[in-house]
């Protein structure tokens, strides 16, 4: 007799199952539940990966135009080498099981992660499907009480598989195509092309060009200072778009008109035409999801994406202070509402600065965040019930924990309430308007006053106080009119926060109504995302990759700017690549796959046909990059800049026929051929066969074996007798610079210090 095996996608689901359903003991990579005769193991993401092109055909290992496009091989998968040990254990568990419960995430990717393992293991037995969207006691028990046949959902996994096959072949082929063509023109890097990253870069390029093309122009507003019923206030001129000289945004563009209007109203009687006061309120902002916390933290704390990602992971896995940090949902379950008092108590115990405001919360208040129907696979990011000394956290860890806690606390405070008074008056037949706001209940803003409140309904053009005491029909005086000169501004360049927001709401930039509709429909089941490209779990990584590959840079002000090669590549690519069109069109096909109306092979055949036509067209038309080609002094072919073990250097694109090499200085080749190694007459002490020669390296002259790279022996003189600081993998939480391992002055203690010292003086004692 065997056992029932539960295969979960994440450790959190294993932990929730063990906490609320079965008692188990850890046995290596899995848990054994003796009483219930069950085994439970997590995959922690994909354990299978698609084969690379060269694994189908060894000739594809070399990048060449001659091998693009390659044939549509039947997709095959292999176990992920990095998870070999875990995978072996899981296969053994599958072999010994009587039945299996599939506990992947409740999306198409989660369906595929477990299904592809079972397919590889050639499992033919029963498989039941469980959807755990709430890790609380009630949520977990309810999920296991409602198991369904996995075959009912297996086509969802097919849709995810089709997308991964299409993405991989599209990215590989198009990247190789454009890179090979670019190298013929002297480009030394890689021109990465991908469904998501190319569309993302397209956003930045178009915004940059819009910003740079903007021409200064001016418009004018007119404000009057009025006194009515002994109340002095400012009111703004209400533009008449028919009679007044205005631009396409109904802004006055004639300075003389504005000045004449000021002269006309100054010192003249004014009469109130209408005045009313309405009670308004703003609801607390929803808890964070991954996109929102990324955007907000980048803006508020001025930290890089990798710092945000690492901080979220450490807060969850190391400190256990927050829930799953890659969630795409901002909603919470009713089960979380029930245990919220305990959660708030824990936060109050952890944070003395929040304890006071938590004492004012009302846990009977149920904000709009608590909605079982809208709560998706993972709920919003909130604090856990873990007690901890948060003073021991790094600065950024503490700040982000408090930030997340604040958003949760806000759900149990009253709505922000105010009286808004709006009036319209007339002076010399011209209408002016004014508004005032009187806060009656500050509510959730006591804890989260800095948050961007999208629900604000107050007219920001004028905010005068004391208008409530003015009577309708009252007459007063316009004491003074003022012309305000204003300069038109382009939309600002992207920053990390604004780019993250836009890639999760990309449909607004799409003109094609069909494409726009498909993008919106794609996320219809997730109220917190609207027409996204990529997923919350992958978006930050894609943005970071665009920086690392030299397509995007960040200036001193935090603006994201596309580089010349990024713009060049954008211009030579098809528009459906630089727009989110492929995401929309492929989604349409994936819907058919999930519905059982289209097979994976039929879809991939269409993709390969499309790629073949596109590649043929590009090969025929060629590409034109606006890059400076530096000819080799020896043969005239283009030199390429390359990153080597000892830094950047330049080599001839005609290699191996021409093996010229040149040093790099400030991104340009020093057009004097690199010095030939000088023989010393010594034998290499490492390999015993090579000869020791003197070479010029990044750090000056060095002795090395002439059999490099077969033998990597190097005898390099140190720059000084002073020990060099060791670079660690840790990032400074204050400024995001690398941390260095250093020793105290007396040499007795080790500590980590920021590499930006003395500008940043952050240290961490070991």
CATH superfamily of the largest domain: Topoisomerase I, domain 2
CATH topology annotation of the largest domain: Topoisomerase I, domain 2
SSE-based structural type:
alpha+beta
Measured distance between first and last alpha carbons: 52 Å
- How large is the count of helical segments? 22
Count of distinct strands: 29
Roughly what is the average pLDDT, rounded to an integer? Answer: 87
According to CATH, what is the class of the largest domain?
A: Mainly Alpha
| Beta-strand content bin | 15-25%
Q: Taking strands numbered 1, 2, ... along the chain, how are they ordered across the largest sheet?
A: 2-3-4-1-7-8-9
Which parts are unreliable, with pLDDT below 50 for 5 consecutive residues or more? 450-463
Backbone shape: globular
Which bin fits the share of residues in helices?
25-40%
How does this model look, in words?
- By secondary structure, this protein is an alpha+beta fold.
- It folds into 6 domains: 3-152, Rossmann fold; 164-212 and 493-621, Topoisomerase I, domain 2 (Orthogonal Bundle), CATH 1.10.460.10; 218-283 and 416-487, Topoisomerase I, domain 3; 290-412, Topoisomerase I, domain 4 (Orthogonal Bundle), CATH 1.10.290.10; 639-716, no CATH class; 726-765, no CATH class.
- Helices cover 33% and strands 23% of the residues.
- It has 22 helices and 29 strands.
- Strands 2-3-4-1-7-8-9 form a 7-stranded mixed beta sheet. Strands 10-11-14-13-12-15 form a 6-stranded antiparallel barrel. A 4-stranded antiparallel beta sheet has the order 18-19-20-21, with no helix packed on it.
- Strand 13 and strand 14 form a beta hairpin.
- Helix 4 (108-120) crosses helix 6 (154-183).
